[in-house]
Amino acid sequence: MLDIPKAELHVHIEGTMEPEMVFELARRNEVELPYSSVAELRSRYEFTDLQSFLDIYYANMAVLRTRRDFRELAAAYLRESARQGVRHAEIFFDPQAHLARGVEMAPIVEGLSEGIAEVADSGVTAELILCFLRDESAGSAMDTLRLAEPFLDHIIGVGLDSAEVGHPPSKFTDVFERARELGLRAVAHAGEEGPAEYVREALDLLRVERVDHGIRALYDPGLVDRLRREQTPLTVCPLSNVRLGSFDHLSQHTLPRLMAEGLMVTINSDDPAYFGGYVGENFSAVREHLGITREQLRQLAANSVRASFLGSERKSALL
Ligand code: ES4
Ligand code: ZN
């Protein structure tokens, strides 16, 4: 299963920072942490919903300060993922969270790019997707996009993440239109905790090419028909959905139903340092707890390559 070539399309680079790295960077950058050990930090990783996770995710990010930090973070994620069969990753990053602490766009984007370049010899490729924090204003998102303009060579697209409920995609229509004018691709988190209507808005107003999560689309049969007809990729994150309370146990996850509906489903890790595993562990878990067959795992892996922003030649090579 680890040997099947895969693409990871839904991973937040800040969510790949393992507790050991949180402590290492805190020491190096002289940032004070409110925990005395890695074990104590890890013991806080009991989440009830998305916000309870986001609170600790944003707090831990305070240790990320320099170009070197971002480079090491990206390289470590890609090395581990490559071991699990990931041949290509499209990686989210949250610049607003770092800009707010006085870290500039250049060390963030260039550091992440250097990390990607550092592991190129292992055959894994990656692209960066700039995510806007939906619980910040549309104006802040537009300012962030403007700050990113000198770095567009390093950025393939834009996304939308953070606290979903109460922050509909419609809030960001103009920002996504501007991003499209700049030649960027578009994706958005929708239907993770928010309603199916947010998935429709992401498609109609933000004109996204993939929906991140999208699990709540199943509450809307008309939307399911549309997603099937258009074969819109959904980047599903099984371990994340369980850790954040969408399902009580992995055996209750609706991944099999999404597949049975004929949707273009992919499997991803979201925030692997927080949710119990990278893409390989997500694949193993759905096989064990949802009865997903080896053949279906192959299908899910092939979907991830097809749903990526890779060119047709590289896609063919990975299929
Ligand atoms: C996230 Cl799981 C999840 N959902 C929304 N925004 C996020 N940012 C990082 N992880
Ligand atoms: Zn996510």
Automatic annotation (TrEMBL):
<keyword id="KW-0378">Hydrolase</keyword>
<dbReference type="GO" id="GO:0008270">
    <property type="term" value="F:zinc ion binding"/>
</dbReference>
<dbReference type="GO" id="GO:0043103">
    <property type="term" value="P:hypoxanthine salvage"/>
</dbReference>
<dbReference type="GO" id="GO:0006146">
    <property type="term" value="P:adenine catabolic process"/>
</dbReference>
<dbReference type="GO" id="GO:0009117">
    <property type="term" value="P:nucleotide metabolic process"/>
</dbReference>
<dbReference type="InterPro" id="IPR006330">
    <property type="entry name" value="Ado/ade_deaminase"/>
</dbReference>
<dbReference type="GO" id="GO:0005829">
    <property type="term" value="C:cytosol"/>
</dbReference>
<dbReference type="Pfam" id="PF00962">
    <property type="entry name" value="A_deaminase"/>
</dbReference>
<keyword id="KW-0862">Zinc</keyword>
<keyword id="KW-0546">Nucleotide metabolism</keyword>
<dbReference type="InterPro" id="IPR001365">
    <property type="entry name" value="A_deaminase_dom"/>
</dbReference>
<dbReference type="InterPro" id="IPR032466">
    <property type="entry name" value="Metal_Hydrolase"/>
</dbReference>
<keyword id="KW-0479">Metal-binding</keyword>
<feature type="domain" description="Adenosine deaminase">
    <location>
        <begin position="5"/>
        <end position="319"/>
    </location>
</feature>
<comment type="similarity">
    <text>Belongs to the metallo-dependent hydrolases superfamily. Adenosine and AMP deaminases family. Adenine deaminase type 2 subfamily.</text>
</comment>
<protein>
    <recommendedName>
        <fullName>Adenine deaminase</fullName>
        <ecNumber>3.5.4.2</ecNumber>
    </recommendedName>
</protein>
<dbReference type="GO" id="GO:0000034">
    <property type="term" value="F:adenine deaminase activity"/>
</dbReference>
<comment type="function">
    <text>Catalyzes the hydrolytic deamination of adenine to hypoxanthine. Plays an important role in the purine salvage pathway and in nitrogen catabolism.</text>
</comment>
<feature type="binding site">
    <location>
        <position position="271"/>
    </location>
    <ligand>
        <name>substrate</name>
    </ligand>
</feature>
<feature type="binding site">
    <location>
        <position position="189"/>
    </location>
    <ligand>
        <name>Zn(2+)</name>
    </ligand>
</feature>
<dbReference type="InterPro" id="IPR028892">
    <property type="entry name" value="ADE"/>
</dbReference>
<feature type="active site" description="Proton donor">
    <location>
        <position position="192"/>
    </location>
</feature>
<feature type="binding site">
    <location>
        <position position="12"/>
    </location>
    <ligand>
        <name>Zn(2+)</name>
    </ligand>
</feature>
<feature type="binding site">
    <location>
        <position position="270"/>
    </location>
    <ligand>
        <name>Zn(2+)</name>
    </ligand>
</feature>
<feature type="binding site">
    <location>
        <position position="10"/>
    </location>
    <ligand>
        <name>Zn(2+)</name>
    </ligand>
</feature>
<feature type="site" description="Important for catalytic activity">
    <location>
        <position position="213"/>
    </location>
</feature>
